[in-house]
Specification:
With 159 residues, this protein is of the alpha+beta class. The chain has 3 helices and 6 strands. β2 and β3 form a beta hairpin.
Length: 159
Amino acid sequence: MEIVRKEPQSPPPCPRGHVATICIRTFKGRKDVLAHLFRPNWGAEEGNYPWELLVEEDLEPGGRGNSREVVLESFTAEEMDQIVEYLANRYADRLTRISTNVLSFPLPAGLLPLRSMPEGKDIGRIRFEIVPGYPLPFTVHGLYDLSQHKPMDPGLARD
């Protein structure tokens, strides 16, 4: 399993902004499925950030997304280290890659947060916290879209 970390060029304007993608060797009959990790919930921390530095102002009221939530569903550097350690230890045989990055601020207005994506036939969530022995003090979900990955040979598929 490969771990690829991209570090920020300069200190980010807030502690949040770290994001990750995992590549799952085989998942639901597909090969090399990407899942984007995110925090599905958070407390009352929204008022604690310099939003004018983090998100461009939405000039059209009632836009389709909420870029503030994109920031809030990202991780701190410490949380990201914990996630990478957990995934590398627990799922080393199932993952081919863990990639981490940092958001580029300011984010454009109107981005859709991952937690707002509806689950359905192809789009779903991995809820890591329901796995017995989940050790992290915060919740991590992974969003995947099976339509982006070709089906495996039916005789070879294993989940």
